[in-house]
UniProtKB/TrEMBL annotation:
Species in which this protein is naturally found: Phenylobacterium soli
Gene3D superfamilies linked to this entry: 3.40.50.2020
Protein name as it appears in the record: Phosphoribosylpyrophosphate synthetase
One GO CC term on file: ribose phosphate diphosphokinase complex
Signal peptide: none
SUPFAM superfamilies with a match to the protein in the record: PRTase-like
Amino acid sequence: MTAAVFAFSEDLAPATRLAEALGRPLREIALHRFPDGESLPQVGQGAEVAILYRALEDPDPKLMPLLLAADALRRAGARRLVLVAPYMPYLRQDMVFEPGQPLSRDVMGALLGPAFDRIVTVEPHLHRTSDLTPVFAGRPVTVLSASALLADAIGPAGDPLIIGPDAESAPWAQAVADRLGAGCLVFEKQRYGDRHVRLTLPEDAEIAGRRVAIVDDICSSGGTLAEAVKAVVARGAETTEIAVVHALFDARAEARLMRAGARRIVSTDAVEHPTNAIHLAGLLAGALEQEF
């Protein structure tokens, strides 16, 4: 049985780490863009078991080449095709919030599910979705947690206080706190549009003099996390750091967080960013060993 990890050029760094963790070769997928905007991937030598790694931040220009590459791998002899997408986009639109909107989660599932035999992802948005397998056309979806890796990156020094910026972050905050044997708090959040929020903590929360680590699954603009940092700094936190799984930072997010008072920002390499201090290769490899 032949097996290999396949990746596009912009994903070579994390895909290389995954291939090394699996002890399997890495094969780059060449991508040609025609003047009219169409894409033509070339997978080269195929494999019976093909692990296709694709980071799906900025998803729109990546999805069509991904689907074409999946077809090419099937035609090159893949009997087993697994998508490793550490960040899975469009899952936050998991219901029709206003008339005229799509149910984006289900559209993603209908696109990707039929193309693959299995999908592996890390900390997807599951606020109103208990199981992704039915969403992805019945294909098995393996959901991995990065909370232990976040906790290890934060570390127990100084008895950190783990804080989630909103109710949706509570599971990650509590899981990180449990691993560290640390205390945990969660902000109450009121949102006013995409970039304006109001955060509050209990008045009796003991913040002064503490090392505070704010954890979340996704950071995009950094607005919510920046407000969380400002709030704990105002309450006298000695140091404040941020740990996120998916660093979807826009161009100003990191600077916004540092100006707010964050001393340190760490993220996983699910999305490539200079703050990537946490590699997911070992976690992903553990979930993929059964394929060989």
